[in-house]
Amino acid sequence: MDTDYDAIVLGTGLKECIISGLLSVDGLKVLHIDRNNYYGGDSASLNLVQLWERFRPGQTPPKSLGSSRDYNVDMVPKFLMANGNLVKVLVHTDVVKYLEFKSVDGSYVVNKSRMEKVPATDMEALRSPLLGLLEKNRVRKFLSYIQKWDPSNPAPQGGLDLQRMSMAELYKYYAVNEMTVDFIGHALALHTNDQYMHQPAAPTAEKIKLYYTSLTRFEGTKSPYIYPMYGLGELPQAFARLSAVYGGTYMLAKPDAKVVYEGGKAVGVTSENETAKAKLVVGDPSYFPDKVRKTSQVVRAMCLMSHPIPNTDNSHSVQIILPQKQVNRKSDIYVFCCSYSHNVAPKDKWIAFVSTTVETSNPEQELSSGLALLGVIDEKFVEVSDLYEPLSDGKQDKCFISRGYDATSHFETTANDVLDMYQRIQGRPLDLSEKDPSKTQTT
């Protein structure tokens, strides 16, 4: 084992692999270690045999499900916003050349127990039963203002100062009703709860603009989301390849890897009686049990099905958001579905996931509203995961720790955590303005 590195990265989850790739591109000498013998960590994609080993050890998958190797079941299922920060990172690093993406068929929101498509065009908006006639006109004026609003201009625009007024005040100004607020806040801005209502309107306006720039990024798309062919397990492997191209070293199957400290600072990692020195250590929370705190839990149900989700126009891939108020909760419920069209299952098989933040002592019951949308389920697996966050920013102890993967079915919070970690490590933000995300290839 070479003994001196600029950085050692522990864990091959997506966040860790992105950081490893970015630091390698920056010219740092990086060693990447994982206790597992596969890439992906908590964000891995499993075949059928691996899925059964994880949830039903000693049992074998039924032959009716088809070949094990035809499945790539994500443990942390999420779509990418077509113009979001993760896509910008993929383009910035040229990792897109290792990947192929396919657009997601549709985005839906539950309103008064009915599943409605989030409009993707002006014509769809006019026909949408989500909004009444007068409400459509108010929403049109609201969205027209948001699309013209320039976030780089701190001065009031159109007589409104979104840096100072709250989002609740902006909604009130346009007189949109409560159902519209639910739709805009959770299906467009993708907020996970309603705390944003009492915060400045500008960040939410930027989130709404991101939704529409993602929706229009690729011609003919029906949603703002894209998803990699063969599943999300392709992403950490692509960034691992990037790191290797720039000289990064990988070591898998090191279950005893532990951080070494001197004077309260991380100075390296030891494994199999060998120690590799480094100026800093990056990793997921599981490698730093004394430096993280548990913040919440996420419950996820993974469902194998032989049909698309009902009432989604036979979509091969779809996101459905159940806003918290619609299901009498404090947190939204997310439904994610993909199929053989993305090469994650055999022909005529679908994989659906339902996830939310745990609020009670019966997590699986909390998914019932989402599971009820799926129709007949062939096989179901449920997992509850603890979420952790670092106690400090890592600048003092040289331990730069990622956060857990939340319940959202998109990657925006994940990408924001990666960019925050990069800035803490390098002392400067990652410049994502150099390249055009439209270069991302979709089919």
Automatic annotation (TrEMBL):
One GO BP: protein transport
Record-linked SUPFAM superfamilies: FAD/NAD(P)-binding domain (SSF51905)
GO molecular function, one term: Rab GDP-dissociation inhibitor activity
A matching Pfam family: GDI
Transmembrane region(s): none
Domain of life: Eukaryota
UniProt signal peptide: none
One Gene Ontology CC term in the entry: cytoplasm
InterPro entries the UniProt entry points to: FAD/NAD-bd_sf, GDP_dissociation_inhibitor, RabGDI
Family statement: Belongs to the Rab GDI family.
PANTHER family the UniProt entry points to: RAB GDP DISSOCIATION INHIBITOR, RAB GDP-DISSOCIATION INHIBITOR
Name by which UniProt lists this protein: Guanosine nucleotide diphosphate dissociation inhibitor
Organism: Apatococcus lobatus
Organismal lineage: Eukaryota, Viridiplantae, Chlorophyta, core chlorophytes, Trebouxiophyceae
